[in-house]
Amino acid sequence: MRFFNSKKAPIDDWSALSTFLTSEKLLQSKGEVSPARRAGVLFSDDKNNNFLLNFSNEIDSILYDGDGATRTLYEIKKEADGLVWVILEDGNFNDLVSSIYTIGNAISSNGGSENLIAAIFEIYLSIDIDDNSTRRGLRSYCIYRYDRKSFYPFIPTGDNEGERDKTAESVLGRDLSDSGLLIEKDFSQWMGLWGIPF
């Protein structure tokens, strides 16, 4: 039985991220997925990269200058271990995806491609697991790994490492794949990301 699509990985991040727009619309029409207003980019800081060091001073021009500028709101959150979250909020899902791409592209174009870790989209899931089990309004995440150029679902059930709903992740992964999203085929690469700040 086919579980994941066999499409080749796209050569650039926009080709991958833009497929989420089509996939989200299809699953939303089926009542399976409701997108939230928030998403984020996670990257590691680098003291040798001036752009990343001054990122908080750069982000306004990244998001708000130019013809394709959006009204996406943002918050930057730095963690003690050197990880940086750029948390975005926008009621227009197309603009939210566009802003995610814009942030990642700016980092990559300024010597930070190796620092990009993931783009994370918050969604709410309503699916039937089997005849006796359902998930309704379940807070979930669709994670895009920059190094793999692919997505995977992540559904934490608690704040501690290892607490996740793997059964629901499997069902969501199949549905996302069937809707055209490029899903990571290697389950060992479905890395848990606990402590997402949104």
Describe this structure in words.
- The chain has one domain.
- The protein has 198 residues and is of the alpha+beta class.
- A hairpin with a 4-residue loop joins strand 5 and strand 6.
- The radius of gyration is 17 Å and the shape is globular.
- A 6-stranded antiparallel β-sheet has the order 2-3-1-4-5-6, with helices on one face.
- The chain contains 6 helices and 6 strands.
- It has helices at 13-17, 19-29, 50-53, 55-64, 93-112, 166-178, and strands at 33-44, 73-78, 83-89, 116-130, 133-145, 150-154.
- The longest helix has 20 residues, at 93-112.
List keywords for this structure.
alpha+beta; 32% helix; 198 residues
Short description:
By secondary structure, the protein is an alpha+beta fold. The chain has one domain. It has helices at 13-17, 19-29, 50-53, 55-64, 93-112, 166-178, and strands at 33-44, 73-78, 83-89, 116-130, 133-145, 150-154.
The overall number of domains is 1
Structural class, please? alpha+beta
Q: How do the SSEs run, as a string of H and E?
A: HHEHHEEHEEEH
Rounded radius of gyration (Å): 17 Å
Strand order of the largest sheet: 2-3-1-4-5-6
Largest sheet: 6 strands, antiparallel
Beta-strand residue percentage = 25-35%
Give the end-to-end Cα distance, rounded to a whole number of Å.
Answer: 35 Å
* Overall average pLDDT: 91
Shape: globular
Approximate helicity band: 25-40%
Give start-end ranges of low-pLDDT stretches: 1-6
How large is the count of helical segments?
6
Q: How many beta strands in the DSSP annotation?
A: 6
